[in-house]
Design brief:
single chain, about 400 residues, mainly beta, six-stranded antiparallel β-sheet, 17 strands, about 10% helix, globular, DUF1996, DUF1996 domain-containing protein, signal
Length: about 400
């Protein structure tokens, strides 16, 4: 299995001989309208899918140590109680109802239920040292309100940060054919917005975070200006993983590059996909373009475990098995058994629903999306939390 993993990752991500990387799958913790970074203490405007430690909550105080508060994690390494979350993808039926598009396991990450894949990448040039995030660190990448490609600086590293790849059927079965031989965020295989056609093998969304920290602020009001993208341009043949730049003077501390990969299982929509060519997918914030895709991160690794992993896990392919002398590798069963009950009394997945949860009418742009005033959606939590439902 390890040999197969290495062969596929060498072909699919072009990481061989480039840098140390930790790559691991995480199952779903909970799916609900919580966002403790943007709307702490309040029900969030749109639905997120959350993975990681079960200490995730409506309010997450930066002074708390979530590696100690969490009793389990949905991620592959026991020491990682961090939380990672993104928007949810929905399909709009011709009759006007919506259903959440389920996630499937990414290539060669085991059998997590839902969730997505996380990478910690040391960076380029090969195996350069990086500084692990400190306790209390958090950040956001992307902007849920944008609806047009022109909002991005196409000459910057950031322009490659959030992309989508349409998988054909053969790529569903084989991780080293077709577009999987190319790194994320480059060339003809990736788009900044949602694909404009049916993808029988699924859609992979890649979300990169900036890797240059100011070395001072664990967080800032906008949750991103304490971070910066590396200088220099990206080789469009190789992608953001191989960025040629260094950190700017304003943000001199090189931290690991975090990457999320979400594999959406769109194959089950074949029989209900619109015959007129209309693009029926929409993200949970009412975004049919995909330009507003975003990711949130709250650090929660135990002690110095992340620094030890980045210093010692030198396998360029990121297989968890090669890091088991440094970190504790959990089984699929252990990951999948970690769950957090939802605390909002509303249906968000598992069946067709009449509207996107929250007040999220579809806003096509090109102007930025706006919040709906006087929203009458559920805005309180319930006294008795309900079990999390895995989408069907």
């Amino acid at each position: 299995m390890l040999a197969l993993f290495k062969a596929s990752l060498a072909a699919g991500l072009l990481i061989q001989s480039a840098q140390a990387v930790i790559r691991f799958g995480c199952s779903q913790l909970v799916t609900e309208r919580f966002d403790p970074l943007v709307t702490p203490g309040q029900v969030a405007p749109h639905v997120h899918q959350i993975i990681g430690g079960n200490a995730f909550n409506l309010t997450m105080n930066p002074s708390d140590d979530y590696s100690e508060l969490a009793t389990c994690t949905t991620c592959r390494f026991k020491e990682d109680k961090s939380n990672y979350w993104t928007a949810v993808l929905y399909f709009k039926h011709d009759n006007g109802t919506y259903i959440r598009v389920r996630q499937k396991p990414n290539h060669l990450v085991g059998d997590p239920e839902g969730g997505f894949t996380v990478y910690y990448i040391a960076g380029y040039p090969p195996f350069q040292p990086v500084t692990a995030f400190p306790k209390g660190f958090r950040m956001i990448t992307g902007n849920p309100m944008i609806r047009t490609k022109s909002e991005r600086d196409l000459d910057s590293v950031e322009s490659y940060a959030i992309t989508f790849r349409c998988w054909d059927e053969d790529q569903l079965a084989s991780p080293w054919v077709g577009s999987n031989q190319h790194a994320p965020g480059v060339g003809k295989y990736d788009s900044v917005g949602l694909p404009d056609r049916f993808c029988p093998g699924g859609i992979r969304s890649s979300i990169f975070f900036p890797s240059c920290w100011d070395g001072k602020n664990l967080d800032v009001p906008d949750h991103h200006s304490h971070m910066a993208w590396p200088l220099g341009r990206v080789d469009e043949r190789l992608g953001i993983i191989f960025h040629e730049g260094t950190c700017p003077e304003s943000h001199p501390v090189h931290v690991p590059t975090i990457l999320y990969e979400i594999a959406w299982d769109t194959g089950f929509l074949k029989d209900v996909w619109p015959k007129d060519g209309r693009q029926p997918l929409v993200m949970s914030m009412g975004d049919p373009t995909g330009f507003g895709q975003h990711g949130d991160y709250v650090f929660g690794w135990e002690g110095d475990s992340l620094q030890r992993a980045m210093d010692n896990c030198k396998d360029a392919f990121g297989a968890p098995e090669t890091c088991q002398d440094v970190l504790t590798v959990l089984t699929d069963e252990e990951m999948n058994s970690c769950r957090k009950a939802t605390e909002i009394d509303e249906k968000v997945e598992g069946e067709y629903i009449s509207a996107l949860p929250g007040c999220n009418p579809i806003q096509n742009g090109p102007e930025p999306a706006t919040m709906v005033p006087n929203c009458d959606a559920v805005s309180t939590t319930i006294a008795k939390a309900a079990p999390t439902q895995i989408p069907v």
